[in-house]
Amino acid sequence: MSVLAPSPSSSPAPAAAAPLPKPPPERVRIGGADRDLVTHLLYAGLGALALTWLAYDRLLPVSGTIGFWLTCYGTFIVMLAAISATTLDRMAVIDRVVGVLVTTAGLALVSALAGIVIFTAVRGKGALGHLNFFTETTAYIGPDAPLDQGGIFAAIIGTLEQVALSLLFSVPLGIATAVYLSEVRGRLARLVRIVVEAMTAVPTIVAGLFIYSLAIIQLGWDRSGLAASLALSVSMIPVVTTTAEVVLRLVPNGLREASLALGTTQWQTVRRVVLPTARPGLVTAVLLGVARVIGETSPVLLVAGSTNELNYDPTHGPQLSLPLFVFTGMRQPLDVAIARAFGAAVVLLALVVVFFALARIIGGREPGHLSGRQRRRLAAGARAVTQNSAQGENP
Amino acid sequence: MSTVTLPVTPAPRPTPQRRTITVRPTRSDRVFVLGARAAALLTLLVMGLIGTFLLIGALPALRSQGWGFLTEHEWLPEADKFGIAALLWGTILIGVFALIVAIPVSLGAALFISEYAPRSLKKSLITLVDLMAAVPAVIYAIWALFFLQAHLLTVAQWLSVHLSWLPFMTVKVPDSPSSYTSSAFIAGMAVGVVVLPTMTSVMREVFSQAPVGEREGAIALGATRWGMIRAVVLPFGRAGIIGGIMLGLGRALGETIVVYALISPMFDFTTHPFESGTNAIAAHIASRYSESSGVALAGLLGAGLVLFGFTLVINTLAGIIVSRSRSGASTEI
Amino acid sequence: MTLDAISPTDSTQVLPVSRERGPAGLVAEAVSAWFGDHQVLSDVDLRMEAGHVTALIGPSGCGKSTFLRILNRMHELVPGAALAGQVLLDGEDIYDPARRPIESRRRIGMVFQKANPFPTMSVYDNVLAGLKLTGRKAPAKGGADDLVEHSLRSAGLWDEVKARLGTPGSSLSGGQQQRLCIARALAVRPDVLLMDEPCSALDPTSTRRVEETIRAIAGEVTVVIVTHNMQQAQRVSDRCAFFLAAEGTPGHIVEQGLTTDVFERPRDERTADYVNGRFG
Hints:
By secondary structure, chain B is mainly alpha-helical. Chain B has twelve helices and two strands, in the order ααββαααααααααα. The B-C interface holds B 119, 211, 213-214, 216-224, 227-228, 231-232, 235-236, 326 and C 72, 74, 77, 79, 102-103, 105-106, 109-110, 112, 114, 116-121, 129-130, 132-135, 181, 184-185, 188. Strand 1 of chain A pairs antiparallel with strand 4 of chain C.
């Protein structure tokens, strides 16, 4: 039972010749993949390719490229399992196979998105190359007119106007409702919250149908951009409300209490402290709402009417919008129309990405997360409240 | 002489009366509260109007057809014979196909992002999935129409031919690829891609909240990564998985544009999902609204009402399931 | 207080276990550890004798838990973690690239500070979880029942749960949950059991039961226990090592040896200060 001598640095031994400094310890390589994993993957991969190549079309009842790669993949997994079983136990083999399957699923998801974006961009390239695509409309030209004529200008105007109007209706209503849920918290709150959350998932066609039967049939309105923006609002309000409520609830209660303790009314607290503090998150809520409705086709399909003409007036007459343009274009049996539709699709996709990115940048990763800058703002807000009181200024 | 102080029990005090605190709100507060309440009521009204309006508008159709509205599969309003039976069946069928492809992929992708992906990639992957959920349906539709369908035709043909011993898998003209276009299968696959990101997002969020203590417990026992996932992450995330699936189903049932663009409408029960021809409620509404009036329009409203009810129930259930569970307490769907 | 003061009660009676060889000992040689660029352990040499209980004592933040987690390859799960040196189990380095961490963890079990039974599994299944997770089958023909009973007895929990083996693991009290985790760790017959402050969240009665368990299993399993409680170290351990990390320097062992020696005849002044409660 030997006791190892304590290391030189700790012993209170009298000063002797200082021991030679030990060389810096060599770090052990840990983590990283199994040593065998790479070789096993390689063998399995090559083997699967070879086997499928040989057996293909001759022995197996599959054909075509897709079939080839699917069979190759299946063989790869079987071979990987077999090869791994030579050196590993059952649990580890299963772990490996599951790892491959899960990674495939992840790659499938990513490649689906990449595929959609790339495919749309490639097919839309033709139309996008022409400047007239952005400046002209498709009114007064034949449907088979070449790509150097006509464009999506009417659609862009329509989308902008409809989204702007929809914002006009949804944002005040949504944020005010969120304020009710988060600050006033009356008896209705629970009911309102349940209803609003349920509404976030209602199909947009139902919203369109609702406005169609209400405004166009019952009230006898024209099919117009205004009706479309109403239908969009029905979809937008729940999104803005739920996101805004989350954001408002995140404002630390301490700030509200600090303000109330200074003798402010609740309204003043909300107006001067809560809302400004939550501003980035509220902007996110709005931007997310925009990103959600900007590409909605079904509501506008029902109530915006069909036209190719430029219509600046949302209250009278049918109005075109980007998603509608894509939808009608893609169903026509004319290559040119389809090419234009793809071009419009690229523009729409770009708009959605821009708003989405803006929402993320301004609002932080999620409405529930405060970025460093937001935390500093919160701190500054708190300081401002106390400074105001110290100067005796009326809040 | 010493004075002795005797302990005297003090007279008992009366039990304290609670005071009622009255607050007299200022004028501005009263306005504020009223204003906020009005906004909330307005929101409630708008949302409630949807249901009521659909109901009122659908009444003529429901009255004229009675229960036949749910059992009739033809859509001939001029002959006073119309019902959503075939539509309902097709909607559900497409939803099922969508789930068949979406459940394994979303589960795998959610596990990948939460458990397998290298840390540096995680944030980007999460953003990617959220972005995918924000892509408008019409873009999925155009991609599905011109890319997915073309590539799925061979797969559909292979499946139909090799599983032809199952009666519903066959098509009338097996050799011609065009028999497989515009089918419930193809529409289902496309809708599956549409609902993938939402489902993945919900599941991933739930998985990432599995408690570290239990994870370490499993690892310390010598479990492999998959063993730990099976023992800790999946049981913990069960409600999130179910909730995610239900959300996906709700979304799939209501998907209009993708289905409308792909299918060729048919008003009989889709008995052969690989055969061209099917229908769904949302797509039907979108295709017939402009030419319908009177009782036909009422019929469309009725169809919309049924769809509305379906999705409401499914989504509310999903919300309850997720929030009641251990994992859902802090998850927002 | 001598070590005999705690003796296993009837309910902790440990049935004889058949094993081809006795428990293995662990030896740490020149172990250093980093989190990123921050070094937390420096040049730790420690011999943890087979079949004995070794206590790691010292104030908080000096790397005891990090060292413990190096012993069963849990340290590397933290991103940016690195280490140097060797850890020999029965003479073989567990960090050898040819060895998978899973194999080492199956021989070196761990009980955590916060009890972590699997809440969706019953008590019965929790005990067997270690076997199931590693793909091993319980011994056939009622062997599973015997193993569960044996493990729960070893952990001193059998009498309290024998009537409710089917209830979920989360339904037990804190002390019971911790003993369930000990039973779970013992069911896989590890060579070494690492315990990271297992009683810090428990009430005194549960603490006492756990300490009884430690004494009872000591012969069959090598135990390494991190503890803040010096009296506990004196009660349960045969040998002990005193860790210290001065301001800004990585942790290291100041003194180690027989527990009685370290507490009654410490050689280093800092050890004397610590065991007499003058700091930490």
